């Protein structure tokens, strides 16, 4: 094969890179810290709805995870404040939130936080918006 050939290596390589789809660069998600306050024997997370909107999760699903892990009762009011009917330390809530992020938000393939949680039949699946991977997770 000569260098004058139309199909030489550098020409084919250049054509390959030109035809590859552009890589989508997802910007990093800035997740604010939990704004925890204690009112008597109750614990409130004041920015709960905002955080759930940022991580693309339904507040009721996040609330269910927290309450199940804490074995406590709680509600979310209309303004998005999550109230737990027991006194819980800020460190405990932050540790639970990190665990929730690792289990139900972060993509197991590319570690992106740009995911959605969908239900396929009886199975919960994390679908990554960055790489397209789907991975099942245990039910909440």
Instruction: Briefly note the structural class of the backbone.
Output: alpha+beta
Q: What is the makeup of the main sheet?
A: 4 strands, antiparallel
Q: End-to-end span in angstroms?
A: 61 Å
Output the helix-strand order. HEEHHEEHEEE
Task: Report the radius of gyration as a whole number of Å.
Answer: 22 Å
- Architecture per CATH nomenclature, i.e. the level-2 architecture of the largest domain: 2-Layer Sandwich
Low-confidence segments, given as residue ranges, are none
Fraction of residues in H or I helices: 25-40%
What is the strand content? Answer: 15-25%
Number of helices, counting only DSSP H or I runs of 4 residues or more: 4
CATH topology assignment of the largest domain:
Defensin A-like
Q: Can you walk through the features of this model?
A:
- Helices cover 32% and strands 21% of the residues.
- The chain has four helices and seven strands; from the N terminus they run αββααββαβββ.
- α3 (59-70) packs across α4.
- By secondary structure, the chain is an alpha+beta fold.
- It folds into two domains: 29-105, Defensin A-like, CATH 3.30.30.170; 106-140.
Describe the structure concisely for a colleague.
The chain has 140 residues and is of the alpha+beta class. The protein has 4 helices and 7 strands, in the order αββααββαβββ.
């Amino acid at each position: 094969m000569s260098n004058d050939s139309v199909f030489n290596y550098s020409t084919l390589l250049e054509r390959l890179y030109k035809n590859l789809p552009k890589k989508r660069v997802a910007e990093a998600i800035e997740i604010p810290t939990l704004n925890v306050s204690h009112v008597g024997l109750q614990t409130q997370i004041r920015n709960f709805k905002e955080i759930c909107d940022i991580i693309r999760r339904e507040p009721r699903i996040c609330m269910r995870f927290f309450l199940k892990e804490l074995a406590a009762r709680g509600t979310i009011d209309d303004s998005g404040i999550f109230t737990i009917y027991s006194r819980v330390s800020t460190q405990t809530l932050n540790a639970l939130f990190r665990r929730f992020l690792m289990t139900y938000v972060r993509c197991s393939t590319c570690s992106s936080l740009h995911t959605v949680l969908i239900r396929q039949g009886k199975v919960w699946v994390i679908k990554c918006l960055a790489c397209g991977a789907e991975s099942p997770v245990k039910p909440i």
